[in-house]
Design goal:
The chain has 305 residues and is of the alpha/beta class. It has 9 helices and 16 strands. The chain has 2 domains: 5-132 and 274-304, Quinone Oxidoreductase, Chain A, domain 1 (Alpha-Beta Complex); 136-250, Rossmann fold (3-Layer(aba) Sandwich). 24% of the residues lie in helices and 30% in strands. Strands 3, 5, 6, 7, 8, 15 and 16 form a 7-stranded mixed sheet that branches. The protein has a 6-stranded parallel sheet with strand order 11-10-9-12-13-14. It has a 3-stranded antiparallel sheet with strand order 2-1-4, with no helix packed on it. Bound molecules: NADP nicotinamide-adenine-dinucleotide phosphate.
Length: 305
């Protein structure tokens, strides 16, 4: 009997883009509450570069005997459903798999995923665009949850990296919660940031009521918060130490199918941008990683398995 297989990108001895291998692994059937998705698109996110160069292995966050999977978010089509799942084969979905310690990822032709972590992709939003939403849309939504509703007094929020994937979504979503948002980004990003309804700056002075740190400025970002203000970071493994009565929090993005459904609806309506820099075949994953590592990219590299 022949075993059917699918292709996936993994690292065994992580040491950067050249250590990424594409291997064949056996297809398995979804268990209760799970579906099998044929992946149409998987974006390259900054975290994937860290996994490929062994950053999280070195921190002790990965303990895989054979290989570590790459990729956190995806869009694709349901091809098989497990018991108790109310989704038909053929449904277009997007989703997020989280955590570092896993032998599978979204840089793959197929994925087994919990149905509760998925959202249906609205008609009119293509799968490449949809794939760019889950990780960074949910990160932004969960950052805004940590900030909460803006107080009536003191609602000036600085979003660093406002032209990035996380920052851009925070700029958009925080305004719904009453924050008066200024985006810190490069000079060439002004039109994009203002287009999201925010004020724009390339250089921020201290004194902000809150800072959401999409640019990973860390202590330099914390220094921009007023005494007793709020700071939300994006690096759980490097949370800046609190000072001056500032509330310091850090987002650890988790799957949330219902929330993702709302974010995809906002993407379909154009309210949330879905920027794609390039679409590349899975075989060119190392090249895509090298390009992202250079920095300055606007929009995602999206892999097509
Ligand atoms: N904790 C979590 O759960 C979680 C979830 C998602 C993402 N993240 C992390 O969040 C970070 C951002 O991710 P992303 O996908 O949004 O990255 P991104 O798309 O590359 O965005 C980062 C943005 O920050 C800008 N930037 C960097 N330094 C700046 C400075 N000094 N002034 C102005 N702009 C500056 C970059 O511009 P240039 O390209 O010109 O430098 C870029 O536009 C990454 O570290 C990622 O790993 C964490």
């Amino acid at each position: 009997m022949s075993i059917s297989t699918f292709r996936t990108a993994v690292v065994r001895t992580p040491s950067g883009p050249d250590s990424i291998e594409i291997i064949d692994v056996p297809v398995v059937e979804p268990g209760p509450g799970e579906v099998r998705v044929e992946i149409a698109a998987a974006p390259v996110n900054p975290v994937d570069l860290g996994v490929a160069r062994g950053l999280f292995h070195a921190m002790g966050l990965v303990n895989q005997p054979e290989r570590t999977g790459l990729g956190w978010d995806f869009a694709g089509t349901v091809v098989a459903v497990g018991p108790g799942v109310d989704l038909a084969a053929g449904t277009r979905v997007a989703g997020l798999v989280d955590g570092f310690d896993r032998d599978f990822g979204t840089y793959a032709e197929q994925l087994i995923v919990r149905a509760a972590d998925l959202a249906v992709v609205p008609d009119g939003l293509d799968l490449v665009a949809a794939s760019t939403v889950p990780l960074n849309g949910l990160a932004a939504a969960q950052i805004v949850d940590l900030l909460g509703d803006a107080p009536a007094e003191g609602n000036r929020l600085l979003v660093t990296g406002a032209a990035g994937a996380v920052g851009g979504y925070v700029v958009s979503l925080a305004q719904d919660r009453g924050w008066q948002v200024t985006g810190l980004a490069r000079a060439e990003d002004e039109e994009f940031v203002r287009g999201l309804g925010a004020e724009f700056t390339t250089h921020a002075e201290p004194g902000w009521d809150a800072v959401a740190d999409g640019a990973v400025l860390q202590e330099r970002g914390l220094a921009l918060v007023r005494d007793h203000g709020d700071f939300v970071g994006v690096q759980p493994s490097a949370k800046p130490a609190a000072e001056r009565g500032i509330t310091v929090q850090v987002v650890v993005t988790h799957p949330d199918g219902a929330r993702l459904g709302d974010l995809l609806a906002r993407a379909a309506s154009g309210e949330l941008p879905t920027r794609v820099h390039a679409v590349m075949p899975l075989d060119q994953v190392a090249e895509a990683h090298r390009a992202v590592a250079k920095g300055g990219v606007r929009g995602r590299y999206v892999l097509k398995p």
